Amino acid sequence: MKDFILPFLIDPVSKSKLVFDESENKLVALNGGVIENEYEVRNNVPLILPKVNGAAHGNLLGNAFDYVAHYEEDANAFNYFVDPDDPATRHENRRLHEAILSAFRTDSETVLDVGCGGGWIANALLPLGKRVISFDVAFGNVEKVSQKHKAENHFGVVGDVLNLPFADGSLDAVVSAEVIEHVLDTKAFVENLVRVLKPGGRAIISTPYKEKIQSSLCIHCNNLTPHNAHLRSFDEHSLSGYLEPMAGIASSHVILSNKALLYLQTHRLLGWLPYRAWRWVDKMADAVVNKPSRIIYIIDKAHTSQR
Description:
Elements: E1 18-21, E2 26-31, E3 34-42, E4 45-48, E5 59-60, E6 63-64, H1 67-77, H2 87-102, E7 110-114, H3 120-125, E8 131-136, H4 139-148, E9 154-159, E10 171-177, H5 186-196, E11 197-208, E12 215-217, E13 224-226, H6 240-243, E14 249-258, H7 259-263, H8 267-270, H9 275-288, E15 292-301
Parallel strand pairs: 4-9, 7-8, 7-10, 8-9, 10-11
Antiparallel strand pairs: 1-2, 2-3, 3-4, 5-6, 11-15, 12-13, 14-15
């Protein structure tokens, strides 16, 4: 275990600080010297998931749904570490990543990447000397990211975004790219991200914009299954109801990736443009055909909470 990670970690059940038991290679939460909960550390990656999964995690389309097991299987089935075959998709991903990084505060030192996938955040920020915590519900993803981007300022953690195992006000920045649309409880998701931010910290969330959620009947379980496991659609106002009751929180958004440009395969020309020039073209396209495909929410926590 790397020393820098321990001050950030808490037991998601008891909220107690976690202590590393080197002899047993596990993290433990103590109460009066008695172990309340303990968590396996596998290949230097702690698995800080609550003991009870399944229906306790929520309910999908009226059926008990263990999303921890689901996304572990997803990590085994799909390779998030190779670029898409389609050049237009690669271009869209690149521009989305550039937009997220342009919203990142350069003075942020410790960054939590929620839903780390292929680890592009680690790849971008570790060379800048930032401390990156690659976080995912699937051990397979975290293990691969940790192995691919080995560095003293990088650490992987397995856990549940609805029960983040990080102390209140402990992190400078949280980035969550293309995750919120998969989450059962949007309110808990947003509250957890804001909770772990330091005063003056920033959360950056990206998701498809005004996506039409479609479902198909599964031939195995005979239940409706949403395509790409996308559960909800988001627009400019989707997070307002969750953020407005929070003291000292300001938010803004960026809309990008015009669908007409994607449909017309303009990446062949626009792929050569620097990000700022591409953004200008993208905005002009939206003025003609208002069909953006992505939205990025930027959430700032005030240095001093307003009372």
